[in-house]
Amino acid sequence: MSIINYASREIQFKIVYYGPALCGKTTNLGYIHKRINPENRGDLVSLATAADRTLFFDFLPLNAVVIKGFVTKFQLYTVPGQVIYNATRQLVLRSVDGVIFVADSQWEKMEENVESFKNLEDNLAKQNISIDEIPYVLQYNKRDLENIASVNYLEYVLNNRKKRVQSFEVVSSTGQNVFASLNAVSQILLHKFSKQSDVPKTAPTPVAIPVEPPVLKV
Amino acid sequence: MNAIPCLTIQDVENLDGVLGEFLKKAEAELTVVIDRGGNVISQFGDMTVMDVTIIAALAAGSFAATKELARRIGEIEFNALYHQGNGNHIFMNSVDDDTIMITVFGRRTTVGLVRFYSASAAQNVGKLLKSLQTNGHGFCFDASDITAAPVFADR
Questions:
Q1: Strand locations in chain A (E)
Q2: What is the mean pLDDT of chain B?
Q3: Distance in Å, alpha carbon of A79 to nearest chain B alpha carbon
């Protein structure tokens, strides 16, 4: 749960990148760490195995001035995607404010995507949080690969709920839509705590935001 | 409309009072109160010692990870953890079900002294936080106070 410190005029939010193994969660954080202004970030902490698989979590603290008069601290975490580490995923989800669900667009990963999303719902439910209450967006990652499902299919499989959410076509290795999805979930969770209820709590259009077309070199 | 739990200036002063007294008695460098999700609630002491945000995230993880070890020997969790370095050390103790207190200390003091004073400090912090839960107020900001520009920019 976020907390405001009036003395230091700071607000903290926790955003968790969730998804199946090898879907690109750590790559997202790596890209953000590399590209964001160094003044606005801390160190990227990665608790990984020798083979660079996330063992516990990755962590990246970011600062921004987005609310008048307050420094807003966003703490980005990833969970380990491998099925056996469910206890760790539950720990990382503790006090979560927002989620970015990273799906792997490859056809052969579809079952893992669905299982991971169900696992997210179950783990949130253990904290008495409904997936419909928490701010989240979907990333359809690895759109640069060939053997990928269409966006319509991914929407049908992962975004076919009563409350549909914003989704993004992402290539986390090159950074396409990585910041767009982070900004989207940040705005949704900021507005969740605002006084007006007519501001968008969720995106109005549940349509995937396409990857920018490649620039042709002349 | 959802409100964010809020620490007022008075709340922070009260917490700082408890933490400051503890640091003085225990002769430690820095103490940080965090929730079990890794969020910093309050901190007092020499902040240049380390990045408090990262320490909070790792300490929450460390505390949670050893819970399973505790369970194996019939405990619900360990009430305190001690990480010994060559010159600097970390002592962590449980405040309540939601909160942990972290203390960083060096050669000026001993783990025994830190452990002794941290027990009463944690009790006092727990009482203050409990009173916040019952009397505390939430905070909501105005939608117009939120920037319309993207929160984070790709350089």
A1: 3-5, 10-18, 45-48, 54-67, 70-78, 98-104, 136-141, 167-169
A2: 88
A3: 12
Query: Does B1 have pLDDT greater than 90?
Result: no
> Inter-chain contact A4–B142, Cβ cutoff 8 Å?
no
Pairing state between β A98-104 and A10-18: parallel
Of B7, B68, B150, the CB nearest to A3: B7
- The neighbouring-strand residues paired with B6 are A4
The residues, ordered by sequence, that sit 6+ positions from A136 with a Cβ below 8 Å of its Cβ are A98, A99, A100, A101, A165, A185, A188
Tokens standing for A71? 């420094």
- Average of per-residue pLDDT values in chain A: 87
A152 touches chain B (CB under 8 A): no
pLDDT surpasses 70 at B136: no
pTM above 0.90, yes or no: no
pLDDT of residue B137: 65
Asked if A117 and A40 touch (Cβ cutoff 8 Å), the reply is no
Amino acid at B36: R
H-type alpha helices, chain B? 9-26, 52-72, 111-135
Residues of A in contact with B61 (CB under 8 A): 47, 56-57, 91-92
